[in-house]
TrEMBL record, chain A:
<protein>
    <submittedName>
        <fullName>RagB/SusD family nutrient uptake outer membrane protein</fullName>
    </submittedName>
</protein>
<feature type="domain" description="SusD-like N-terminal">
    <location>
        <begin position="78"/>
        <end position="216"/>
    </location>
</feature>
<dbReference type="GO" id="GO:0009279">
    <property type="term" value="C:cell outer membrane"/>
</dbReference>
<dbReference type="Pfam" id="PF14322">
    <property type="entry name" value="SusD-like_3"/>
</dbReference>
<keyword id="KW-0472">Membrane</keyword>
<dbReference type="InterPro" id="IPR033985">
    <property type="entry name" value="SusD-like_N"/>
</dbReference>
<dbReference type="InterPro" id="IPR011990">
    <property type="entry name" value="TPR-like_helical_dom_sf"/>
</dbReference>
<dbReference type="Pfam" id="PF07980">
    <property type="entry name" value="SusD_RagB"/>
</dbReference>
<dbReference type="InterPro" id="IPR012944">
    <property type="entry name" value="SusD_RagB_dom"/>
</dbReference>
From TrEMBL, chain B:
<dbReference type="Pfam" id="PF18003">
    <property type="entry name" value="DUF3823_C"/>
</dbReference>
<dbReference type="InterPro" id="IPR024278">
    <property type="entry name" value="DUF3823_N"/>
</dbReference>
<dbReference type="InterPro" id="IPR041186">
    <property type="entry name" value="DUF3823_C"/>
</dbReference>
<dbReference type="Pfam" id="PF12866">
    <property type="entry name" value="DUF3823"/>
</dbReference>
<feature type="domain" description="DUF3823">
    <location>
        <begin position="27"/>
        <end position="120"/>
    </location>
</feature>
<feature type="domain" description="DUF3823">
    <location>
        <begin position="123"/>
        <end position="233"/>
    </location>
</feature>
<protein>
    <submittedName>
        <fullName>DUF3823 domain-containing protein</fullName>
    </submittedName>
</protein>
Amino acid sequence: MKKYLLILTAVISIITTGCLKDDEFLTTDPTNLLTDDAVWKSSDLVLSVLADLYDRYPEQQTITNWAEFTNFDEAFPSEAGQYWRTKQVDYPTGWWSLWDYGYIRDLNLFVQKCQAANELGADARARFLAEARFLRAAIYFEEVKRMGGVPLILEPMEYNFSGDPTYLQHARAKESEIYDFVISELDSVKNVLPDDAGIKSRATRAAALAMQSRAALYAGSIAKYGGATPLVSLPGGEVGIAADKANAYFTKALEASQAIITGGKYSLYKKKAEDLQENFAALFYDKSNNPEVIFVQDFKLKSGKTQDWTLANQPWSSAEEQQGGRVNPSLNLALQYEKLDNTFAPFATNNGNDYVYYENPGDIFAGRDARLGGTIMLPGSRFKGVPLDIWAGVMYWKDGKYNIISGDNFGDRDSIPVAGAPRSSQVVGTDGPVDGLQYSAQSGFFVRKFMDPTVGSGQIGTRSDVWWVRFRYAEVLLNAAEAAFELGQTGLSSTYINQLRERAGFTTQLTDAQMTFDRIVHERRIELAFEGHEMFDNKRWRIAHKVWNGENISAADVTANLGKADRVNTMIYAMWGYKIYHPGNANDGKWVYRIVKPSNVTAAHRFNLGNYYSVIGSDILSNNPKLVKNPNH
Amino acid sequence: MKKTFVYIALALTAFACKKDNYDPPSSSLSGHITYQGVPINVSSKDVTFELWEPGWGKNGAITVNVKEDGSYSALLFDGNYKLIIPPSQGPFRSITNAETKNDTMLLTIRGSRDMNIEVMPYYMIRDAKLTLNGTTVNANCKLEKIITDVNARNIESVFLYLNQTQFVDGTNYLARTALNGGDITDPANINMSVNVPDNRSGNGASGDQDYVFARIGVKISGVEDLLFSEVQQINLK
C-alpha cells in the first residue's frame, strides 16, 4: 500500500510540474546568455559589454603582434617564417585596410541602448555613453587614417527584408568630415569622462584630449602637405583636405595638447633620474602611479589576459624558454639617436683604414641620447641582471691581416687557427648575431621598449602584464610642439621639445631657430619608436613614398643624412661587434664594429602612392555602388 | 560487416561527385599597350589594367598585368567584357573610346584574340642607343613629347639602369645614373653613361656574368609609373 502511495505521489508530482502551460512553452529564459533586458539593469553587466568593446580597439603595430614592427625598416624580423618582410619590394595596397562596420554597429547599438537604459544610475549611464562614443571616435579615426573618408554611420541600421537594400547604402563622407566628427565627438565627451590620472585602461578626459590632439594634427598635416602628392586625392574630397583648413586643425591640436599640459595631472616619467636609460625603459613597464601614461591596453597575470612581447623578444642569454630575440631594431634606427652635444654622428667604427678599438663592447654607444639605450638593448648592457652577449665573431691576426672566425649557433666554440691559441674558445656571442639564425640579434640589437624585467615574463606559462601604451604625455608634448611649429610659434615649440630632450640627458637646449620640420620628424621617430607611429606619421607628412622609394641603399647611405625627414630608409642594416685576438698587441681583447647587411635583407621597400589610402575590397564596392574607389589602385 | 561498410562508402564517394562541371577558361586575349603601333615599355609588375564582365551577381575586376615590354596576356572565358585602364596606371593616358565615349572599351571574346591597346603616352623614347665603351655603358636617345595640350607634363628625371637580369627598372638594378629633368638642354639628344660594376653577382645571379641588361627610364612629374626604352643586352666580352 505504502508502495502505491509513493508511486501515486511521484506520478502526480511529475504531471503537475513536468509540463509547462501552452502559453509558456518556448518562452523559457535562456540559461547560457544574458538578454538585453537583464544587461541594461546592471552596471556590472554593462561594464562587461563595454569591456568587449574596449578589447576590439583597432591596432596595427602593437606588442601582441610583434611582426608588424618589422615592416618599415625600424627592425629586422629574427624568426625563420618572417624573413619575407625584408624580401618583398611593394607593400600590398590592402595590408592595413580596415572596414570594421561590425564594430561600429556594435558601438552604435551600445549607444542607442545606453541612452534608453533608465534603470541605470544617471552618472554611470553618462560615463558608459561617453566611453562608447570615445571608442566610436577611435574607430572612425583609425578608419580615416587608413581609408580616407568612410560612410559616417551613427545609428544601428536594420534591414527590413523588403528585398531592396539601397536605403542601407551610404556614400563616403569627406576625409575632413570624418576628422571633424572625431574632433567634435571628443569635445563633447571630454567633460563627461572622469578627469582622473589614476585611470589608465578606461577612457578619461585626458585620453579624449590626447586623441583629439593627435587627430587634429593628422588632419592639419594632411591639409598642409597633401599638395606634395596631388595624385593622392579624390575630386569629392573623400581623400585629401583643402590646404586652407590646415591652420584651424593645428590650432585645435595645440589647444587640446595644452589642455592636458596646463591641467597639471600628468608629467614626464622621471622616477629613476639616476639612470636615464633605465628611466626611459621603466616608463613603459612601471604600472604603479605612472605620471606619464594616459591611456593603455592593460594586461593581468593569471587572468588569461597576458601578452607575450617579452617572451617573443627576450635575449637568448637570459631567455626563459627556447625562443625570443625576434624584434631586432635596425642600425638605421639606432643611428638616429644624437650625441649629447646635439650633433648627429654615425657610430665610430673606422678611423681611416683601421678599425676603432673599444675597451668594452658598449663604449661605442657612450655619450648618446638616453633614449637609445632605453629603446634598444645594446651590446654591453644587461637585461634581467644578465649581461647581454652580442658579438659576431673573433677577428684574429694572421698573415698580416685580420681574419674572422665565427660560429653558427648561440655561443659556439671553436679553435682559433693561430699557434698558441686555446684549443677551444667561444667564437660568437650567446645572443648571436649569427646571420640567418632565428632568435639571434641579427641586426646586432634587441628591442628594450615594453620589455618586462620581471622574472617569469619570458615563460610561456606566465607571460607578461606590461601594458600597451596608446597615449602618453610625451606624445602630447610632441603634438603640441609640432602644432606650434606649424603655426609659426617656434619658441613655444622648442619649449615642449626641450622637456623631452632634457629627460633624455641633453643639457644644451635647442634654440628657436633650430626648430625645423626635420627636427619635428626626428624627435617623433626616436621618442615614439615601436609605439605604432612611424608609418602613419610618414603617411600624413606625405613623405612615405620618399622614405621607402624602392631604391637600394648602401652602408654609406645608412650613415648619411641622419636627422633628415625624407632620408631614404628602404633596407635594414646591422652593426656587428668582433673581439680582437692578437696576443702581444695593444688591441688584443678589444672590440671593433662592422656595418653589414643581413643576408635576408634582399629587397628595398617601396611605398607606392596607392599605399597612402588602402584599397577598398571589391566585395565592399559591389555591395554598395555609392562608394568611390581610393586613388592609385 | 565492417568491410561491407567500407566498400559502400568507397562506392558512394566514387559516384558522389561529377568532375568539374565546366571547362577551364581557354580563350586567350593578348597583345601590347601601344602608341601608333609601337609598344610602350614599362617597369615589371607595376602596370595593370582591368577587365570587367558585367552580368554576374557581384562585381570584381580581373586584373591583367602588363609585362616590361608592354605586352600582356590573359586567359578568359568567352563573353562580353569591358576593358578599363585605371587613371593611375602607366606613363600614359587612356584614349576616349569611339563606341562608349569614355575611357571604357567594350570587348567581345569568342576564342583567342590578339589586340593592341592604343594609349596616349606623355612621352616616347625614340632611337635609344645603348653601347659599351670600355667599362662604361653609354646611352643616347631622343625624348618626344606626345601630349602637348593642357595635360602635358614635364620630365622629372631620366635614368639609365643596368641589371644582371632582363628585369631592369627602378627596383631592379645593379647600377644607375640619373639626369635631372631641369638639366636637359636638348630633349632630342640625351646622353648618359654609367659604369658597369665590377661585382655583378648580386642577388639572383651566381658568378660573374659577361653581359648585363640596360635600359633608359623616364620619370614624368606627377606620374607614378616610369616610361622605359626596350631592354637591351650588352655583352661585356
